Amino acid sequence: MRMKSFAILLMVLLVTLAGLAFVNVGSGARPEVMLMGEWQEVFWTYEMVDGTSHTPDAGTSLSEELRNEITRGMVIHESETWRFGPGAALVLQKAGQRNDTLQWKLKGHGQMLELVFEDRHQEVYNIRELKEDELVLQFNNDMIARGVVRIILKRVSEHA
Asked: pTM value?
C-alpha cells in the first residue's frame, strides 16, 4: 500500500512539473518577436582566447582600425542601426549613408542569427543575450589573434 501511495505521489509530482515547464515555455516571448524593432550598436568588445579581455568595462574597446581589420569582408561592421522588420527583413543603416536590406533567420532554437545578403552570402552570429532592451551578438575571429568579438546593441524602438 505504501509503495502504491508513493507511486501515485510521484506521478502527480511529475505531471505537475511537466505542466509548469509547459506553461513556462509557452509564456516566454519568442526570440523572433523579441528581435523586432530598431536596435543601435553601442559598442564592440574583443576577448582573446588566452583570456585577455578588451572591454569598455575594463576601459578599452576596439579601436576603429582593429575593428575594420577584424571585420574585413563583412557588411555588418559598416552599420550602426539594425531594423528587424516583418517578413524576416533586416535593414542595416549607417547614419546619413547607405542602407543594406537583407533577410534574417534564427537557427539552433534561437541561439544563432543568420543574415542572408542579396548576393546570397551569409554571416552567422551567436546570440549571447537577448533581453527586452539589449542584444549581444558574438562571432569568432581568427584574423589577428584568435578571439571572440561581441557586438552589444540597445533597443531604440519597438516594432509597430
From this structure: 0.66
**Number of neighbours of residue 19 by Cβ within 10 angstroms:** 10
CATH architecture, domain 36-158: Beta Barrel (2.40)
Residues pairing with 108 in the sheet: none
Strand residues in 18-143 grouped as ranges (E) = 37-48, 53-54, 81-84, 89-93, 99-107, 112-116, 122-130, 134-141
Q: Are 101 and 107 in contact (CB under 8 A)?
A: no
- Domains of the chain: which residue ranges? 1-30, 36-158
Task: Please check whether residue 152 is in contact with residue 42, taking contact to mean a CB–CB distance below 8 angstroms.
Answer: yes
Q: Does residue 89 surpass a pLDDT of 90?
A: yes
**Residues 80, 94: contact at Cβ < 8 Å?**
yes
Distances 25 to 15, 20, 29, 30 between C-alpha atoms, Å: 15, 9, 9, 9
Residue 60 has pLDDT above 60, yes or no: no
